[in-house]
Design brief:
alpha/beta; binds magnesium ion; binds adenosine-5'-diphosphate; 3 domains; Rossmann fold; 553 residues; 37% helix; 16% strand; 6-stranded parallel β-sheet
Amino acid sequence: MATVRGATLIAENLKQQGVDYMFGIVGFPVIPIASAAQRAGITYIGMRNEQAASYAAQAAGYLTGRPQACLVVSGPGVIHALAGLANAQSNCWPMILLGGASGVAQNGRGAFQEERQVMAASQFCKYAHAVEDARRIPFYVEQAVRTSFYGRPGAAYLDLPDDVILQEVDESEIRAVATIKDAPRPQAMDESIESALSALESAERPLVIVGKGMAWSRAEEEVRDFIDRTQLPFLASPMGKGVVPDDHPLSVGAARTLALKEADVIFLMGARLNWIMHFGLPPRFSKDVRIIQLDVSAEEIGTNVPAEVALVGDGKAVVSQLNRALTDRQWFYPVETKWRSELAAKAQDNQTSVQPMIDDDSSPMNYYRAFRDIREWLPDNVIIVSEGANTMDIGRTQMPNNNPRSRLDAGSYGTMGVGMGFAVAAATVHPDRPVVAVEGDSGFGFSGMEIETMCRYKLPIKIIILNNGGIGGGMDELPTDRPIPAPILTPRARYDKMIEGFGGKGFLVEDPKDLKATLTEAMAFDGPVIVNVLLDPKAGRKPQQFAWLTKEE
Ligand code: ADP
Ligand code: MG
């Protein structure tokens, strides 16, 4: 009777359940899993730090619509990858972490890299379990994968002890499991559909907020149709950008602060009223704001602000219900209203206030000037990765997204260091699309070593570092006479030289007049590139009406 090894069962079951990509670092005891994964037809990408690998796996899951895997060694490997579990949970993105573990037979003895891994991972997961016998691998893989992406997506963890990975079992003892279908798409109640449309009809200053739940549910066609039918003004959350194109005439993203503050009825679609949305509370929102809330997770309804109408269901399914109901109603928000004019005027004001910075050709350059050339250069089908404080915040307003799932940033958890892993994932999953990572120098540094991964796999990622020599901002020179202030990094650090060491190409840009031509050259190079753009260490964001972090009034 033929036997099969644990490692092979893990790989084949992952492949059966739609896991096509695995990002990781090999070592004891998971080397056999990586080899088996390659034999099973899973693309394995070997990275330099488990943290980056765990970020890559979740971005790949978000981009493909099925959970993808991260493979790490026992103990410290799993601990490093917890960062990715937490980030995936916070973003509601699926991923499967496969953690090698010391053998069951050595539990409690002080084994090599022994750690209570299931306990550690549980806090950051929807599902965490140890596999105690290779014969049960099909069961556990199915549970982990399904739990990770059915309902609200999140992270799953499987603990794989050395002796289970190496266990040889008789094939006749393996019970095959069914292949997991696409996630069910529950619909909202018909009454709620009618109530939602009635609430919108009663609004004087309506606003639609499109979040990354809609991007995840692949609802772009339905949401675009809904916006076109209803003519409602909308804005997107950072990663909800592109579900409806940023350049859509009904986008009021450029008047975000006013739109949030004055709206009387808000249709919140697949977004949370968390810190990114200022909790839906005054002073950033009207105290009487009425909320229509669409979410796949019933538990989310009413968080921070009670919902007048709850649409519990899948984004794509529910918006198509709304669109069907609209054909009977034939209602749309009037073309000429005071609210529209106010929003348009505010958007114009905001544009006018940043224009001098955009036009400022002095050297060293400011953020807005750098984004002027970046914006014009970005290809239409680009995937933008972005992190860093000012780099990300200003970039969000200056770089348009016209396609869904085309922006990957620090997200709900506000994690710095995600960018390189996300870029590796995007380039792996979408080899047909350009991937551009716009990074602060600090943000880049967290996972900068992944440029070696990019070069090794010949991933033609274009990294632009907006380098102001600090976390936030820097100084022209490091002080010699006193301790270096905490957020200061090396001024004018030559990140562009690092990538040359691995076979990529580096460019240094000091004067804004050279930026455009350099970007063109970078795109033409068939491989990974760093364009190191030296910014004025004092450059900042346009003055904001409110501080970025909302506190209680
Ligand atoms: P954003 O940062 O864009 O506001 P969040 O991550 O805060 O997005 O919120 C996304 C919301 O989308 C979560 O509450 C999540 O439960 C919800 N969601 C996830 N999948 C779906 C889906 N298929 N349909 C509708 N909502 C979804
Ligand atoms: Mg910086």
